[in-house]
Amino acid sequence: MSSTTDTASILAANRRGIILMSAAMSVFIVNDMLMKIAAETLPASQAIGIRGMMSATWILIVVLSVAPARELRWVVEPHILVRSTFDIVGSFAYLLALFHLPIATATAINTATPIFLTIMAVFFLRESVGWRRWSAVAAGFAGVLLVVRPTAEGLNWWALLVLAATGVLAFRDIFTRRIPTGVPSIVISLSNALWVGMAGCVLAPFDDWRAMAWRDWLILGSASLFLAIGYHWVIVAMRSGEASVIGAFRYSGLLWAVVIGWVVWNQVPDGLTWAGIALIVGAGLYIVHRERVRARQRA
User: Each residue of 63-86: pLDDT tens digit?
Assistant: First the structure.
């Protein structure tokens, strides 16, 4: 009887996590859309800085309402500062490239995160990876090449910048394991938003700071709120059930990116890009599947 109850509980937790993860991906893509629109009239560093500080304000309100104020001391914990440095580099690189690429293309390349995590797990966590997962990694990178599509005339440097940003952010996720377990997840999210925002504000005066109209404030304020909500939903989702099952639904963001790119900018991926997306998603899902199988074998 208890086994049946446990199974039902896990399924319910997984459903909740899947719903939250899918919702989080939708708000993240809306955030990307708003930032791409904001960059049409504002310098990148100014848009990133103001959005980050606004997002940090939303998250700070939540932190102070659910945790003692003393938990804020973790914002300057050395491991969190190192993680935040990777987040600053990765976020700036991704958003800068996003401003010059179709949103579906940038999102497709960014979904290569499980592929990078597999490679980094070998070198930094000393994990053993079998030929099946290495084959999936190779297929995933083949998909990335179809999306990036290097030609004799030259490389798409913005697409390569997204790829580099994906690698940096994957290493950030690997480094997260070094953060003390006593640090609340919401404080890590606060640190992300705060340090990225501060970096943007520091760089903005050197990047032609401009006066902002009410429309700019509305766009960045909305983007910051979507970003803060997405951070929270991802954290709750990943703590709800089986991480391997819920994490796979990060790919739902691709659907939103394609729809938004089509509706807002009339951008539709061509055949080769769709083929690349299929390879990237397929490889990532297989890697997640193999990790789940390995977890069951260890158990």
Answer: 888 878 888 888 888 999 998 999
Contact 166, 115 (CB under 8 A): no
3 state SS of 154: strand
| Rounded to 5°, angle at Cα 105 from 104 and 109 | 115
Domain contains 49: yes
Half-sphere exposure of 296 (CA within 13 A, CB side): 8
Q: Residue 220 falls within a domain, yes or no?
A: yes
Look-up of token digits 């190192």: 82
On whether residue 2 sits in a domain, the answer given is no
**Residue 207 parent element (H or E):** none
Q: If we measure between CA atoms, which residue out of 151, 138, 30, 105 comes closest to residue 270?
A: 105
Report if residue 5 sits inside a domain: no
pLDDT tens per residue, range 220-244: 999 999 998 987 788 778 666 666 5
Domain with 110, as residue range(s), is 11-298
pTM of the complete model:
0.82
Alpha helices, DSSP H, located in the chain: 2-38, 44-66, 78-98, 103-110, 113-124, 131-148, 157-175, 185-203, 214-238, 243-247, 252-265, 271-298
**Residue 175, both tokens:** 């480094």
The distance from CA 29 to its chain's CA centroid, rounded to whole angstroms, is 10
Domain count for the chain, please give it: 1
